[in-house]
Amino acid sequence: MTAEKRECVSILVDAGLSIVKACLFVGIGRSSFYRPGRDWRKADAVVIDAINAVLEKSPRAGFWKCFGRMRFKGFPFNHKRVYRVYCQMGLNLRRRTKQVLPKRIAQPLDVLEQANHQWALDFMHDTLYCGKRFRTLNVLDEGTRECLAIEVDTSLPAGRVVRVLEQLKAERGLPNQLRLDNGPELISATLTDWCEAHHIELIYIQPGKPQQNGFVERFNGSFRREFLDAYLFESISQVRDMAWFWRLDYNEERPHESLGNLPPAAYRDKIENSSLELCH
């Protein structure tokens, strides 16, 4: 029973009506009136904290998304209890939230001479000869400067980014860290949840500071000059095929000045052999 109905019954009783008639008039049972009031905020404090934790990370999430995240975290509450608390918090009403990025702290552009420690992700875009736009997702190993993937399509949502990372996981494992910007695909719950499940630390650069992701930006410059600006493409499949051969040449044949004029693949072999010699 709500506090408002209890208050109405009390007012009618004070006015001279019996409790039975006052309860009938308000439309509640007499036992409900006699039952001690309960502060739902205290009784459901654990559920409230769990909902607030979800909304802090994903402010635009609806009920079922909140409930799904809570179940994924291992909370045992059933959907009826969560929905009751969700409505009592007023979250079922349309709410306007200002999308504000968490504060990004500038991170030093340090790099370890080690494969698979930290990767960098970034998007690029171009057009086909017919004018149709396409995008590329470039994945770079910062330690060895290897280009791990160039995914090409007209649209590359967060689910596609996760799929690329799953493919790289099967091929060579996963990194400890990912350096990336604040694009909508890269701050989405789809990617952040996947990285959290795989214990990958996300290092976001500050908005408007591409130099904080300098390794992949340098790669993007080479990719733009030597590939995107060098050819006219007729179809997406043609871009994919040519990008695959270009990536192969970039990793295995093209010398890299910062690596002592070694190609990235040869440099990776060099540092791995050095590590094995130190172990022995």
Automatic annotation (TrEMBL):
Database matches in PANTHER family: INTEGRASE CORE DOMAIN PROTEIN (PTHR47515:SF2), LOW CALCIUM RESPONSE LOCUS PROTEIN T (PTHR47515)
Domain Integrase catalytic: from-to ranges: 104-271
Pfam families named among the record's database cross-references: rve_3 (PF13683)
InterPro entries: Integrase_cat-core, RNaseH-like_sf, RNaseH_sf, Transpos_IS3
Lineage top rank: taxon: Bacteria
Listed Gene3D superfamilies: Ribonuclease H-like superfamily/Ribonuclease H
Annotated NCBIfam families: transpos_IS3
Name the UniProt record assigns to this protein: Transposase OrfB
Gene source species: Vibrio spartinae
Listed SUPFAM superfamilies: Ribonuclease H-like
